[in-house]
Structures are given as C-alpha cells and as structure tokens.
Fold this sequence. Notes:
Its EC number is 5.6.2.4. By secondary structure, this protein is an alpha/beta fold. The chain is built from 32 helices and 22 strands. The strands form 5 sheets. Strands 13-14-12-15-16-11-17 form a 7-stranded parallel sheet. A 6-stranded parallel sheet has the order 3-2-6-7-1-8, sandwiched between helices. A 5-stranded antiparallel sheet has the order 21-20-19-18-22, with no helix packed on it. Helix 16 (about 295-305) links the parallel strand 9 (about 290) and strand 10 (about 315). The longest helix has 21 residues, at about 505-525. It is globular. The N and C termini lie far apart (about 70 Å). The relative contact order is 0.09. The structure holds adenosine-5'-triphosphate (ATP). Adenosine-5'-triphosphate binds near residues 7, 9, 34, 291 and 563.
Amino acid sequence: xxxxLLNLNGAxxxxxxxxxxxxxxxxxxxxxxxRALSRRFAYLVNELGILPGNILCVTFTNKxxxxxxxxxxxxxxxxxxxxxxxxxxxxxxxxxxxSHAVQYPKSFLVLDNSDVDxxxxxxxxxxxxxxxxxxxxxxxxxxxxxxxxxxxDYYLDMITMSLDTLRRKYEEADNAGDIIFYGYLxxxxxxxGLDYNDLIKFSLYIFAQNEAIRLKWQKRLEYIxxxxxxxxxxxxxxxxxxxxxxHGNLFIVGxxxxxxxxxxxxxxxxxxxxxxxxxxxxxxMMMENYRSTPQILAAVNSLIGxxxxxxxxxxxxxxxxxxxxxxxxxxxxxxxxxxxxxxIQALRAAGAEYRDITVLYRAHYITRAVEEVFLRAEIxxxxxxxxxxxxxxxxxxxxxxxxxIAYKDDLSFLRVANVPRRNLGERRMKFLREYAAERRxxxxxxxxRSLEDEIFKGTKAAQFAALVESFSADYAQRPISxxxxxxxxxxxYEKMLRTEGSQERLDNLAELKQSVYEYETSCGEESTxxxxxxxxxxxxxxxxxDARDKVKLMTVHTAKGLEFPYVFLCAMNEGIFPSxxxxxxxxxxxxxxxxxxAMTRAEKxxxxxxAEGRNFDGSPRxxxxxxxxxxxxxxxxxxxxxxxxxxxxxxxxxxxxxCLGEDAxxxxxSPGQRxxxxxxxxxxxxxxxxxxxAHIVQFDDMPTPRAISFRARLEEAQGAR
Length: 721
Ligand SMILES: Nc1ncnc2c1ncn2[C@@H]1O[C@H](COP(=O)(O)OP(=O)(O)OP(=O)(O)O)[C@@H](O)[C@H]1O
C-alpha cells in the first residue's frame, strides 16, 4: 500500500483511492495525471484485489497505451494488464468477441487509409469517375462526414442489407457522392472491413440490440478510467456512457487547456459539464506541476492566460528555480537553425546528452532548414513524426525530375516517367527494360527510340520525352529554381497534387523551391544543377545509421503527453504557428492551446525562436502572436526583433484579429477615459465605435477630435487634462 501511494501529493492520493462512483480530475499540464492513473490501476489490483481483466483504461494513442501497460506491469508485476487501450482498440476487443451478433466473422479487417484508397480506386474504375469528380482526400473526408453527420445511420445498411442489396444501392446511385459512399460501404462489407467509425458504431449497435452482450461487457468492466478526456468526441462519449451503465465506476482525467483535437470532433464540454451528466460527481483539482521550472511555468501561464474561453487556473511550480526561458529572433530560417545548433552544442558542453533535447514545430516542412544545419554541424537527430524532409515522396519526385533533366538516369526515369500518370504501366515498362537490355541503352533512350512503336499508342510517352528534351536543351542557362518551378508545373506534377488535395505536399514543394533559391544566392558560380544535385544527395543518403544519442524532432501534436529536459520550439511565426489556416477565434484559441502543450513539455530548458523572411505567398514573416502574448519580462532575449518589426507584427495581428472577430470581444476604452497615443500624446476618449473599428479621441494638443483605428495601440493614461 505504502509503495503505491509513495511520492503522491494529496490530490493524487485522493484520485488514486477514490475508486467508487464518478470521479473527475481536472489537472494541469505536468501535474502527474499519468502517474495518478497508473497508480490507481495498481491500487485497484494490488490493494482491492480487483482482477485486471475487469478494468478498462482508455488512452488517447496506441503509444500511450503501450507505455501505460508497461508502467502497470511494473507496478503490479502481473502480465495480465486488462484492457488498456484506445477507444478504437477496445472496440476491436468487443467485436472480436461478439461480431457474430452482426454476422461478421471474428477475422474482420480493420481498415486504414491505404485500404480506403484501394477501395476508392476500384469504385472509380468501375464507375468511370476521375479525380476531377472528387479527389481521394475529398472522398475520404466526404465519407467521414456522411458517416458522422449526414448519414449517421449508415451502419444499418452495412449490417442489415445483404451484399447484393448493398451492391444494387451502389449501382443505382447516380451522383458522384452517392456512388462513392455506397460503393465504399459495399466494398467494406464485401471484405468484412471496418474503419474507425464502424468500430464504434458497430459496438454501440450490438449493445443496443443485444441486451445479453451489453450486460456482459457492463458487468465485466467494474472500473473504467479515461485519460485525455478533454479530447473525447461524441461517439466515444456515448460508448463510455453505455459501458459504465452497470457499476457506475467512472474515473476521468483531463486538462481543458490541452484540447487540441476540436477539428476532429473533440468537445471539451464533456469534461466541463461532467458533473451535470452524472450523479454525485467528485471533482479533484491537480494544479501542482512537477515537470517544469518556475520560469517555464510563468511563461506558459502568461501565454494561456490570453485565451478568453477558459477556466482561470495557473500551474503552480514545485521545482526549484532554473534558467530563464530563452527567446531568439533570427534574420533567416537558416540563421535560426544555426542558433539552435549553437545552443545545443552549448548544452552538450554543459553535460546534457543529445537525447535530452527535442525540437518541436507546428508543421512538417519546418524540418528542412533544421535538418540541413544539423547535418552540417554533425548533430545527430531523428524525426519522430513523418519522414525526413528529403526522404518525402514529393521531394524525391521533384529531385528526380531535376536528375532526369541533367542525367536521364534509369532510377529517375522509373520514379517519374509515370508520375503523374502517363499510361506507362508495368507492361510498357517491361518492354522498355527488354529493349534497353538488348541495345544496352538507358530506359529513357529506349523510350525515345520507340516512341513510334505500336505499344506507346494512347500513352503520353511522347509528351514526357518532349518535356525532358526541352528542359535538357536549356537548363544550363537557367537558374535552378526556375527550372524546378517550370518542370513541376509543365510535367503536371503539381497539378496532380492539387487534384489530390495534398496541401502538405504542396507546402513541402514550396519549401524545396525556397531552399533551391537560397542555395543559388549563396553559391554564386558553383550553382549549377549538377552541383546542386550532388549537394542534396548528401541529405538524401543521411538516414543510414541509428545511434541512440540523438536530438528528437517532432510536431507538437506528436509531443502530446511527453516530456523532455530541453525543448526548442522553433518557427514561432505568424502563418506557421499560428497556422495560416486559422480562421476563427475558437481555432485561434486552439492554436494557443497547442503552443501551451508544446511549451509545457519542457522540464529544465525552453528555447523559443523565430525567423524573419518571406512566406510562400511572398508576404513578410512576423514573430508569432504567441511570443508577444508572453510577458516580455519572463523571456530572456538573445536577439530581439527590431521594434519596427514588432510594431508591424502587432498591426498585422490586430488586422487578422478583426477577421477572426476578435474585436467583438475586445474591451474598449469608455468615454471620458484618458489615453495616450504614441504620436498624438495624451487625450480623452469621446466615443468608441465598434462598427468603424475606432475610438474617437479628443487629443489635448489638437483642436478637433480624431477617429483612431483599433489597429493603433492606445494606452491607458492617468491624470486629468
Ligand atoms: N507527486 C509527485 N512528486 C514528484 N514528481 C511527480 C509527482 N507526480 C508526478 N511527478 C512527475 O512529474 C512529471 C509529470 O507527470 P505526468 O507525466 O504524469 O504528468 P501529466 O499530468 O500526465 O502531464 P501532461 O498532461 O502535461 O502530459 C513526471 O516526470 C512525473 O514523474
């Protein structure tokens, strides 16, 4: 008993030992939620003698489920760790046992995105649809929306209709939306496949239809615990309600400030209104933070305090004082990365390991500059979310186009000849391979010589050859950046990505173009295409060995729930973080929570940075509003942005704030209040006009009043005229 409660504070002990009834823990970042949750599991098993198989512990990701399983195994020594899983994972357990109730076999398939795409491909081919009718990514979204919102009862078709009837429904569909939707349902049923929505819907259906099965699960789950409750969605909530319906022992933990999945249907109200939904709810608050230094906590409290829709609560420090939060402004992304590299080397010199250091960012494409600098500085790193920049499909494709122009080699040919589709499939490739082997020439040469052959009728082989020839003829006289842009355009490659709706890939290509441009401007005479290709080859080959001591690079979403001794949060610029896609006040608050999640990952050191430069659309890059949100007294600047830049940034933010409707919520100066303008000096507010977005001010040194836009900052002033 003592061991289980060892090193827990009062609130944590209470959370661990309050086993019966409905318990809600509202906890701050780093306040030991995970510790409390795993100890509670151990307490139930070791102290109360509950069987692990009668406990359900729901986590947000598979990764945290694995970690939780490990922790609980260490605490209980029991190999049976019960149901520790995500909601979807748990539904797989339900269906593996009870899918017979819907006439599905135990061996049903759980579908992932690539399975869905494969099904879409069949439907498009069968019904003559093209990406012009709907891109795959749009089709996947459409299916998701129909399943969750428009046709929430769709699963009844899957369960109750015979395969033939479902097929007929698909065949009778006459518009792209219906064809794709019913085609997909048919394909799913045909292979007994279930996607994430189906897993929960099917489980709920079985529970609703079959009381015996429902009671079996309800009785089995004597205790239910749910982590990251702030990100629960409606279906998951419904499932939870059913599952706890017999014993009524439900324990939930969440932090409203860490809601970052609203865009996927999460609803923080389930956490905030929990006590209204269930009887006799006990609420425990955990605000003491054991992770970060008081300096880091002061900065994050200052940031999250700027969100208007939140319960006011500060994280309370428990650790001794540490280093100040460092903030750096750089002239370019490269300079920013170089600064980070310098700081990392300094941390190493002071005794830190590379593995203690993590670089966080909002969007994948940010890693390009960081990776280049780290490679040069020989800082070992590993990317946790997604693929390394130069290993990404679209980057490899784009570089292969360049190589095709310069070298016409077989590898590049194989990579791009049929991307986008030119009808050069396996049969024609085989023909080229045989031709090339016989005549000892390259595949491209083989193609060029056989363009007239019957086999290439109806293909775009001739256009491809013409493209390569025309670029080969004059690339040496053109800047590489221009060649790259032109070839991505004329080859149809970018168009293909646009039709697929792959915005992230397009962003990555824009980043590649930017890097080529920087390479040209910094290399002078040496900047030939061949030189450039040799230069990037170093990056593409660099993912070989896997030593353990490495700096980690990951997106903020991936970092959820993790902690690291030193955190670098980079590219803190408007348009990146907050993302340029942020269109509403709510979304902006979610971005701020995301920044909060990022910063609260840091234990000993937090380094914030941003760089001037241009966005992909050519607009200037400003420091992020999230940096400006933090009380400047809490940041130690190694290099501060110019005052002019900060003023421009504030203007920009004020303007974009108006688009978000921020002004509607902004407190105004009231008539009679004294204010100070940076140029006009002291004055008295006559009126405030929201529709005009301006205060009317009578300045002391002016004969008539002026309307001063909300964009200009007026400061509160004391003293009568
Ligand atoms: N009572 C305690 N005394 C000392 N250290 C603690 C205590 N509780 C938790 N910790 C430590 O504090 C850190 C944060 O704990 P944990 O990871 O459980 O937090 P969390 O609430 O899940 O965080 P987040 O929501 O930010 O991901 C861990 O390093 C943990 O070991």
